[in-house]
Each structure stands twice: as C-alpha cells, then as structure tokens.
Amino acid sequence: MYKYIHDQALRLANQGLTPLEAAEIVELPDTLGRKWFNRYYHGGLHHNVRAVFHKELGFWDGDPATIMPLLPQDHARRHVDLIGRDRILQEGRDAIDGGDYRWAVQVLHHLVFADPEDTEAKNLQADAYEQLGYQAEVPQYRAIFLTAAQELREGVRTEGGVHTDSLDTILAMPIDLLFDFVGVHVNGTKAADVDVRVNLTFADYGGDWTMWVRNGVLNARPGHADDAQLSLKGPKAVLAGLLLEPGRAAEAVERHGLTAEGDMEALTVLGSVVETFDPHFNIATP
Questions:
Q1: Exposed, middle or buried: residue 9 (CB in 10 Å: 0-12, 13-18, 19+)?
Q2: Taking every pair of C-alpha atoms in the chain, what is the biggest distance, in angstroms?
Q3: Which residue numbers in the chain have pLDDT < 70?
Q4: How far is Cα 136 from Cα 142, in angstroms, rounded to an integer?
Q5: Which among 260, 257, 266 has a CA at the least distance from the CA of 237?
Q6: Angle between helices 45-57 and 2-13 (to 10 degrees)
C-alpha cells in the first residue's frame, strides 16, 4: 500500500500535478483498499499522497504564486477589503446550506483571520468544521476539524492538554538528544552575541560533556573543554532541569547538591537567552 501511494504520487508529480491535485486523484485499488488494515484508522490517503510530495520534493507545490505568499492575516484582510464582509458571510451561509463545507471553511477563513473578534463568522466557520469532522473517516482529520470548531467557539483551552515535554520524556532522552532539545529553546536573536561554554558531568550516566552557545546556536560534544567558564556535576534529572531553567541554578546547586566550579554568571547569561514554551497557542484563529 505504501509503495503504491509513493509511486503514484511521484508519477503524478512528474506529470506536473501539485500535491493537492494528486491527493484528489489517487485511489487505492480494491485489492488494497478493501483490506481492513488499509482503512483510515491512522492517517489517510489524501494526507499521505501530499506527504510523499513533501518528503521527496519539499514544502513548495511548484506554483510560483505560492512560493512567497502573503501572511494569512494580510491575505485575509485584502480579500475582505476586496469582496466585503457581508458578501463573504452570505457565501459561507450558502455553502453550508448546500453542504459545501470545504468551501465554507475556506471562504469564512478570510473573515476570521481579518477580524478574530467577528463572533458571527467564527461560529459559522465552526459549524462547517463540525460537519467536516462528522464526515471524516480519518480520525486525525476528524480531531483536527472538531478541535478547530471548539477553538472558534470557546477559544484555546488550557486544561486537559497533553504535554510531550514531560519529565519522563526528557529523562528518557539520550544525552545528545537532550542538548538538541535545549538548543531549540535558545532565542537566536538574543543569543547572537553570547559566548558561553559549560562543562557538565552526568554523574549517574558517567558522561562528560561540553555545551556552548555562540553565534546564537547551542552545540555540545562529549568530553570537557579546558576553557569552559563553568563546570557542573550532578544527576541527569537535575542537570536537565537546570539547562531548561538556568535561572534556577543557585537553587539547584543548594537543594540538590550539585558540584559547581567556576563562574555561575555563565548560567545567568544562558538563562537570558533560553525560552520556555506555552503549547496553548491559536491555530484556527490568528
């Protein structure tokens, strides 16, 4: 099945079709599509055809108009200014009444992104998303559509969410991956002029590492550096927390008995460029 999807997607790509155009065409033959294990219980054909394009050819669909588009909010405002709110809203209502929910979502998207306080437009688009969700066989698409409808009606909900950066997940990371994880928390603009080098010894893993931030980038490698401003030794759990929240370094040293040699100011500098993430951000609204 996967080879069929892969080969047919690239066959159509070589005929000049875009990812979306190919996704609307490719269908599994009955010998594959009627197998229960090939039904859309995880992922879907429409999604996977486009994923082949993305993997093999990159994010761009080949249309020059899409290589450098306007930002969604600017694009939306231009459409609303051109067409008018009332006409777009009526078109959305007509599309929903006619069962044309994909079009309703797209046309109403302009109103929502042009004016996120337009409750009437948001509720109408939520109705369209809800119908798309009810009709979707692919569970991920169903969840995406229904969650979008919920956001439009209620805003972004912060309770009951799943945090992928849980303590268990972080502690399960190999040391090199842990440094990669910390690296994506570095604000490159703020760190552009920072030059910090820290030696770390993970006492419970028997590993010596050097971590440094320079030119806005965090790197790490096994072994210690002679020119490090600071050396820290302690268990992985404590060092991981310290790297992600350098501002609590003094507390960590005192509370968890970390061994520290050198200039603790290095962690203050690191803390000034390391950000924390809030996973509760808007998606269906700007």
A1: buried
A2: 72
A3: 160-164, 250
A4: 5
A5: 257
A6: 60
Across-strand partners of 231?
199, 261
b or e along 271-284 (b: 16 or more beta carbons within 10 Å of the residue's beta carbon)?
eebbeeeeeeeeeb
pLDDT at 162: 66
pLDDT the model gives residue 79: 97
Q: Tokens 């899409």, residue?
A: 66
Is 0.70 topped by the overall pTM?
yes
3-state DSSP call for residue 99?
A: coil
- From the CA atom positions of the chain, what is the Rg in Å? 25
The order of strands in the sheet holding 217-222 is: 217-222, 207-214, 195-202, 230-234, 259-262
H helix or E strand, kind and range, residue 234: strand 230-234
Paired tokens of 230: 């600071």
pLDDT of residue 220: 96
Amino acid at residue number 278: D
**CA angle (156, 111, 149) in 5-degree steps:** 35
Name the CA dihedral angle for 252, 254, 255, 258, rounded to a multiple of 10 degrees.
60
Looking at the chain, the whole-number percentage of residues with pLDDT higher than 90 is 74
> Do the Cβ atoms of 85 and 120 come closer than 8 Å?
no
Encoded tokens for 268: 């203050």
Domains and CATH numbers, the chain: 2-65 (1.25.40.880), 70-154 (1.25.40.880), 167-271 (3.30.1050.10)
Contact 266, 199 (CB under 8 A): no
Write down the pLDDT at residue 248. Answer: 74
Q: Are 221 and 210 in contact (CB under 8 A)?
A: yes
> Minimal CA–CA distance to 42: which of 145, 140, 134, 142?
140
- Cα separation of 272 and 285, whole Å? 30
